[in-house]
Design brief:
Structural class: alpha/beta
Strand order of the largest sheet: 2-1-3-4
Helix content: 25-40%
Number of helices: 4
Number of strands: 4
Strand content: 15-25%
Shape: globular
Number of domains: 1
Length: about 130
């Protein structure tokens, strides 16, 4: 979390999952719609924002596939459905950080309503140069 904002402000937000050690080490290659590094740079330049890092328990095999470059992107059908428990945890963290309205850093995607968490998605911010 960086900076401060009023309750009605639109806050840049990146919810990044699954968090892998490789996401922090590899700046040039990302299997996500927006890299962790690019998201943190945007928050720093904007002066405020939130990055929520969720660890979803990758296996050693999944980490090896990421390292070798054979892993599928996070949004690929092979990942299966969104785990609503993880989704809810991310939403609760954002509320605890004081976020109510946000611009999500990442590609637009279909997601469950956030109204039940008192959150509103104002828009999406795709990968820079995408």
């Amino acid at each position: 979390m960086k900076g401060e904002w009023s309750p009605d402000a639109t806050v840049p937000v990146r919810v990044h999952e699954p968090l892998s050690v490789l996401d922090a080490l590899e700046l040039d290659r990302s299997l996500h719609s927006r890299s962790l590094d690019a998201s943190l740079q945007h928050i720093a330049a904007h002066g405020s924002g939130v990055a929520v890092l969720l660890n979803c328990g990758e296996t050693a095999q999944q980490l090896l596939e990421q390292f070798e470059g054979t892993a599928v992107p996070a949004q690929a059908p092979e990942r299966g459905r969104m785990d609503l428990r993880t989704y809810g945890i991310g939403a609760q963290i954002l509320r605890e950080c004081g976020v109510q309205r946000m611009n999500l850093m990442g590609a637009p995607r279909r997601m469950p309503s956030m109204a039940g968490y008192g959150l509103e998605v104002a828009g999406f911010m795709p990968r820079p140069n995408a």
